[in-house]
C-alpha cells in the first residue's frame, strides 16, 4: 500500500506561513478536481509517465527544500508514488542544506537536496558522512544574490562595516565568502556576517537589523521589492566558483536500492524536461509548493539552469568534473575554517555517482 507522508519542520512551517501571508489568497491554477495534500502543498494525482515498477517496496525518507527546481515538481505531482506504488515515500521539508547534512548525520534521511557547499562539508573532516551526489537539481545563477537595503550601495566595498545575513554553510555563504575574498574584504573584520535562515530574513530586513543578505528565491524576490542586487552567484560562477543544488543519497541506501534510485532519477529527469519545455505547467507545481501565483513561480526559473540526465552524466558534470568542483570547494572551505581538513581528492571523486543519471538517460 503506497503511503505518502509529508513532515514539515518548524522552520519550513514558518516559511510557508510567511509566504501565504504575503501572497494572500493565491490562485495556483489548479482545478477543483486536484487532490490537496494539506501537510505540504497541492498534489495532483498523476499517472506514471512510463511503466510503473510495483516490485519496489522500500521506504525512502526524502529531504526537500522549497527551491524552484524539479524536486518540487516531482513531489507535487506525486511521481515517485505513482511510479513505485508499493514504496513508502516520506517527504520532510528543511530550511537549508546545513540542516539536511545534520539529518544525514542523525541517520534520519536517505535522499536529500543540498547545495554543493554543504555536500562538500558532509564529505570532509570532521563529518565524513557516507553519502554520494547523484543528481544536479540546478546550476545556480542569479537566483542566489546579494541584495542591499541602501540603494546607494552599488558594490561590496560599500558594505564595509555593514551587517550581512546569510545561511552559514550554504552555497550562498560560499559565494559570499568567495566574493568578499576576491574584493579584498576581510569577512571577520571588515563586515559583520550573521547566520540567518531565509525565512527569518524578511523580519530582520524590515526591522533594519541587517543591511544586506545573500539568499535564494522566494525570499530573494521579496527582499528585492525594497532592495537592490549588487552581485549574484552567476557572477561568482563566471569568476570560476560555480555552485549547484545537488541531489544526494546515503551510500548504503544507494547500494541497497538501485532500482529505486533509477526510478527517482527518471522522475527528476521528467521534471527537468517539463521545466525546460513546458515551464508554465511546471510552474503550477512550484506555485502550489511555494504558495505563490503561477506567473511568479515561472519567473523563478530564470535564475537557474536545469540539466537533462544525458548532460548530467557526462564528463563535465557527474561523470567527472563534479568531483573536482567539490575538491576545489573543500580547499576554499578549509581556508575559511568551514572544515577541519581537506580529504584526499579521490574522496570527492568517489562522492559522486553518475549511475542514476546514466540510467535515466537510457
Q: Are there runs of 5+ residues with pLDDT below 50, and where?
A: 1-43
What is the CATH superfamily label of the largest domain? Answer: Periplasmic binding protein-like II
Distance between the termini: 29 Å
- What is the count of distinct domains? 2
Assigned CATH architecture of the largest domain = 3-Layer(aba) Sandwich
Q: Average pLDDT value?
A: 88
| Gross geometry | globular
Percent range of helical residues: 40-55%
Give the helix/strand class.
Answer: alpha/beta
The protein's oligomeric status is single chain
Question: Beta fraction of the residues?
Answer: 15-25%
Q: What's the total count of β strands?
A: 12
* Biggest sheet details: 7 strands, mixed
Structure overview:
The chain has 362 residues and is α/β, with parallel strands linked by helices. The protein folds into 2 domains: 257 residues, D-Maltodextrin-Binding Protein, domain 2 (3-Layer(aba) Sandwich); 95 residues, Periplasmic binding protein-like II (D-Maltodextrin-Binding Protein, domain 2). 42% of the residues lie in helices and 18% in strands. The chain has 17 helices and 12 strands. The strands form 2 sheets. A 7-stranded mixed beta sheet has the order 1-3-2-4-11-5-12, with helices on both faces. α2 crosses α12, α11 packs across α12 and α11 packs across α17. The radius of gyration is 19 Å and the shape is globular. The two termini are 29 Å apart.
